[in-house]
Specification:
The chain is built from three helices and 23 strands. The protein is mainly beta. The strands form two sheets. The chain has a twelve-stranded antiparallel sheet. The longest helix has 6 residues. It is elongated and about 85 Å long.
Length: 447
Amino acid sequence: MIACFGALLVFALPEAAAADDWYPHPADALWTWQWTDSAYNTTPTTEKVTVKETKGSTFTLAWTTADQGNADDAVDSAGTVTLQQTLNGLVTADWQSTLPPPTFPILCARAAQCGNSLASSLYNLIWGSRAPLLAEPLVKGTAWSGTGGAGNDVASTSTYAGTEVVTVPAFAQPVTAAKVRSEVTQAGALGDPYGSGIRTVWWVYGVGPVKIVFEHSGGTNPALTTAVLQTSNQTPKMPPTDANYFPLKQGMKGKYRWTNPTYFKKPVVESFTLDQVVNASARFTFKSVSGPIKVAAAYGFTSNLDGVTNIWGVSQAASLAKLPKLGPSALPADKRRHFFTPFDLMTFGFNPLIPAYPSAGGSWAAAKNGRDFSVYGVSGTAKVIGVQRVKVPAGTFSALVVQTTLKQPGFPFGSGTRTSWFAPDKGLVKLVFRHGDRSVSTVELLR
């Protein structure tokens, strides 16, 4: 990470888990770390970390080795790291510190004015992981890429590896931690390959990181950096669910059957493919298999701390089924939405489809302005019922149930109650839309 040399002063989400609990930062928060490096810092170094400042969504952590009872040959350092909480997770916004020890590898192409350092616990945490440092929501399958270093010359690919019980001196009992593994690469530095390797960080909900292990690249006896939390006044919490109820994984495929006996005698069968993923956004495409509706459609979704959100949709269709018209009356007829695919039924009304960290009883309401209201003109509320077993042709699943009430004035087919079942690693597996005109649309995953 960049080290600025010179004078240094050391010092809504819809009913979901608190976004900043992966790194809480109340004004009185305190963490004490101890770290070693098998090659360059064999004497344990203790650092005290406090919250220097909080401004809106950003907070600055300050560390110092002063007055921590360190041995004379331990590393002396002090610095700050500024983090920002965004919809996509924690971002490293800024950092500065005293000079790294001259015995450490030079992590730049030139020794003069080198702004990179790994001589602290926090620098090992944020090395190569600027945006984001920690992606959210943290669910199964989450992976991301990042850069870092003074000149963006460090790259990383990070993967959430699930939860693990760890023991650290800060707590009397073992704690459940989210494990994040990062492959870090740096090329062209005088101290190569010290800046490259495998870093593993254990994050405890309600506390922040509690353990960092950086297995550096190089030779037959590569260096190993280990940082472990010794004390903290923050309290560990059980992490929110990491079930991925709407995975955005490129290459996913499936097939749905949609029935509505009132309006078509034969079921509509359509297949989908998730054919493009960029960061946390994805595109699904639909095409007809059989039935009275012939369609080609595509939909865009994103997943962040606002939840799973539909951001666009386009379709071309020819239908023998005479479905009732949808509103809103404020839009001309050629600008109104239609029900052509199961995803039209699923996304109709308002966002999000699912909160970032859903829990039973969580609820949210339709906004009375903004994009969704302009497109749909729908009022209503959504509620997480909980996890239930559901059986469909594709199998039996423990699925998250979301129930939504919808009211589109003047259009009973766009009003009613929709119940959606979302299975981990599968997404939507069943949907029942009881329309205001007393017809019922039922969608089931076939495979």
